[in-house]
Specification:
There is one protein chain. By secondary structure, the chain is of the alpha+beta class. It has one domain: Alpha-Beta Plaits (2-Layer Sandwich). It is about 40% helix and about 15% strand. It is built from eight helices and four strands; from the N terminus they run E-H-H-E-H-H-E-H-H-E-H-H. Strands 2-3-1-4 form a four-stranded antiparallel sheet. Bound molecules: uridine-5'-diphosphate.
Length: about 150
């Protein structure tokens, strides 16, 4: 089963949206198999966003991401990488469709509430950065048998 890394960023935590985001993930039928609630270390934030290191928003992004608690998740399910990107919506809230998290709750690209890996390679890399050797959990949801053909 495919796994992806999801983060509820400090703005999502501060705005009391953890339950809203977790509820959307769970109701979709994806399974949360890892969870870590912490203030992200600067080194991890820099590694996570390394592809943006030369962009003008990088320093501010790292400062924001490490400024307060964020919730890191490992989310599992069929096509979980694509599905989580769809649940989150476009990076720019103005382009995010209503019904997505960013479309429903955000107005600024720098405060767009959530992150989700954009490829299998990114998912593996990001899960490793944030969860290290801490293995995802294995458990049965009572609707597992209804969710899959
Ligand atoms: N970001 C920003 N300003 C920009 C572009 C991106 O602050 O002009 C931040 C924003 O928080 C975004 C993150 O950098 O979510 C990573 O950007 P990416 O293009 O990878 O978008 P995502 O994968 O988060 O949709």
């Amino acid at each position: 089963m495919e796994q992806t890394y999801v983060m509820i960023k400090p703005d999502g935590v501060a705005r009391g949206l953890m339950g809203e985001v977790l509820g959307r993930i769970e109701k979709k039928g994806l399974k949360i198999v890892g969870m870590k609630f912490a203030v992200m270390e600067e080194a991890k934030a820099k590694e996570h966003y390394a592809e943006h290191a030369e962009r003008p928003f990088f320093a501010g992004l790292v400062e924001f991401i490490t400024s307060a608690p964020s919730l890191s998740l490992i989310v599992e399910g069929n096509d979980s990488i694509k599905i989580m990107r769809a649940i989150n919506g476009a990076t720019k809230p103005a382009e995010a469709a209503p019904g997505t998290i960013r479309g429903d709750f955000a107005v600024d690209t720098g405060r767009n509430l959530v992150h989700a890996s954009d490829s299998p390679e990114a998912a593996a890399r990001e899960i490793k950065i944030h969860f290290g050797d801490c293995a995802p959990l294995t458990y049965k949801r009572c609707d597992d048998d209804c969710l899959y053909e």
